[in-house]
Specification:
166 residues, mainly alpha
Amino acid sequence: MTLKKHLEQFIRGWLPKESNLPSDKLKMAEAKTKVSKPRWWKPLWMTVLFMAFVFGVVSYFLLHYPLGNVIAGMAISLLGVGIAYYIRVRPSTNVNRAIYIWVGITPIGWGLWIVFIVLSGVGRLLTTYLGYGPGLVIGFIVPLTIGASIGDWIGKRRNYQLPLSP
């Protein structure tokens, strides 16, 4: 058994047995029409909204958080639920591409920023030679742009299909 096959079988234990990536690179609209929603789909979203409301009420009445903080937390929670619902119910290539780019910026771009700018001392050199403003701008733009490019590249290789998407 080759090393590649062994690694693939080892990783397959963590992933679904059937790949969710279409082998012939179906279009997003064709992939949407093939799979019906599971029976628990609607109760899941209703439960998530209900629990967000319950946590808001509990934090106001029992934990005595200020009303402004509770309303802001509820708004952010409902916004997040709305985005998650939209991503799963109405998938599109543009939204999936934006998600891949953001996921590339968030862990990869900020990780590069920490390694190259903070830990290596390049940030201090940039601010010394270019000045404080341009050094900070370049120090933030370059790693985050590289992270976005890596995220877009990963998305392109996956045909902009999200993991475990229908």
